[in-house]
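Q: Hi! Curious about what [histone H3]-lysine(4) N-trimethyltransferase looks like structurally. Here's the sequence.
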Amino acid sequence: MTGSIEGLERFDSPGKGRGLRVTRPFKVGELLFSSQAYSYVLSVKERGYYCEFCFTRKEGLARCGKCKKALYCNAKCQKGDWAMHKLECSAMTAFGENWYPSEISRLVARILAKKKTQKGRCVSEKILLIEEMQSHVEDVDNEKREMNEADVAGLHRYFSKHLELPGHKDLLTLFSQVACNGFTIEDDELSHIGTAVYPDVALINHSCLPSVIVTYDGTSADVRAVKDMKPGDEVLISYIDVLYPTDDRNNRLRESYYFTCECKECKSKSKDKAKLKVRKRSDPIEPEVINNMVRYAKKTIREFRALKYTKTPSELLEMCEQSLEEMGAVFDDSNVYMLHMMYQAMGVCLYMQDTVGAIRYGENIIKPYSKLYPAYSLNVSSMYLKLGRLYMGLEKHSAGISALKKAMAIMEVAHGKDHFYLTELRKEILKK
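A: Let's find out. The predicted structure is below.
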């Protein structure tokens, strides 16, 4: 892979295994490389909004004549997707409402089909990279093992008619590989569009102080520098949301990727104090009180996640407001646990079409986000986008344009100035 991409080489990264490093300088915003997905799948929730083949979002998409579920830009896209869509087309019709394989099962089915049908040197290299991807199948806990078993069962149920499936052990390994190395394709506001495997991008190791960012152009992944890089520098992305304090980040990394980060920030914990900021009082708050509130915050976040799809929006919003009131007695408004629940509350308000409520939470979030996230963070640009569009909806054009321009400044680095999102955003601003 790297032999065909100027300025990059594969190497053995100390303590991390395989990795990528640059062999020439790269400036902030410069594209290191683009990668076409080896295999990808559109989320079922996004069917009807995006073309299944190229992930273009537009109105007037044409339905598959057989299943009536998949939609395409035109006959060319439909023909291009048939080798993958045929795995699902007749099954969706046959199973009807009982067709509900997981997204990872759908992706694994496509990987298996692609492995069998593709030939050639270039593709063989991609297959080799997939075979090399770490699975950590031996490290999977009971809960994840049960999920993998359910996904394997789903693969057999929904796809065995069109696929010759490997043995059970090999399937478990493949599911674990995809779980560790798969990428979530997101839109400009970080909404989930689909899932994909990019074997060459998966070579990039993690750091909580990333040197590059991965964004998406249709089904292609673009890797761009968010720091100036000199020859010999390792290419590093963040596998997780870096907003949270060091212990939280490493707990997430161990749970999902089975390692502990030893980057400069994880060793120094220099941002943890700001991330866990407490209210200023004449009497300092006791450490035990702070620790108890951190435990309460983590418990509330877990409970909200568990109840997200069973409670009504009003109940979820009340849960957010109660937890914010409780935490607010100890935590500053810029504390990451306060920000987390504000973000959830904003999402509920958006769902309820409460624009004023969503703006209120967003305005409380954006300033701390800008300070706590790295430069050129998509979390910050997506928040500016949300706020800008909400302002525009309320005819607050000045505030809207200001927010959208701040989003644009970040996106021009992260996505590249010629990206479709930037073209559309400029049109959005000019309309007003």
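A: A fun detail: The two ends are 45 Å apart (CA to CA).
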